[in-house]
Amino acid sequence: MARISDAGAAALRRLDPEQAHRLAIKGLAFAPVPRPSTDDPILRTALAGLDLPNPVGLAAGLDKNGEALRGLSRLGFGFVECGSVTPRAQAGNPQPRLFRLTEDRAIINRMGFNNAGLDAFADRLDHRPQGVVVGANLGANKDTEDKAADYVAGLKRLAGRASYFTVNISSPNTPGLRALQGRAQLDDLLGRIDAARPATGPARVPVFLKIAPDLIADEIGMIVEASLAHRIDGLIVSNTTLERPDTLRSPQAHETGGLSGAPIRSFAEKALRAAAEAAGGRLPLIAVGGIDSGAEAYARIRLGASAVQLYSALIYEGPGLVARIKRDLATRLRADGFSTLAEAIGAGR
Which of 106, 182, 187, 268 shows a CA-CA span of 20 to 30 A to 223? Predict the structure, then answer.
């Protein structure tokens, strides 16, 4: 079945990128996807109170509206993140806005938080598969002046529906969004997020903050301290980059937007190292950016990540990549003498 699914992914790559994306979502929503096999016990891990069968998650961006949770939940991910979702539906940026850099195994997108809004998202979460850890990635509407209010609205509307929340302040495709990573605006945003959360009880689920890979170490250190001060439960390191490495070969490399995939690996690793150094074990980290193999997933865990997320690599490797990463990760853990994944977190620092 993995081979068939990967062949389907190859066929989709022959279509326009956004058309292929829509077809993939429809296929995952309605096609019969078999249940995955039980995960190797060595992969089970805890993340900010979440019990994960394995540390390999789906990053936000693939399923913006929570439409394909049925199929995604059966691809073998330990957790699935949907969104970004904004309070009001919005069309996003003009097309074309999604570009494959095939020669570089990369993607550039300037989607602009296109989504159907909180009400549609909430309805789909109400009907999500049971027993699956599903995160809601929150964004702000493009025309909202008080962007912090949009994140609070998302948190309140989806309370009790999501397993965790991600506050996405690092997309490069919404004007003014990355400015929220400055200390004054960050304190205001995170303070309001913390105030809006239930003090205790089952509705108080983890809240993660997703940051950009383009930050310097001092900026990441500041974000770590602000996150701890406002009781954020973890950092996702990191989003797409505005940088364009000299190694890019694709004729699409000049397009504006966020770059993801293999070429951002060094940026994401550098940001993860800085976050791990600043956090010193006080804040769980989730690594994302250029992860396309068990070796790379293992490297990020040894650098300090408690879990990893994929998206762009699935476009080039197909959904069978999830199972391959898990098998390789389990093998590498045992080969290095670890009996649990937790023992390997930060072992390479």
Answer: 106
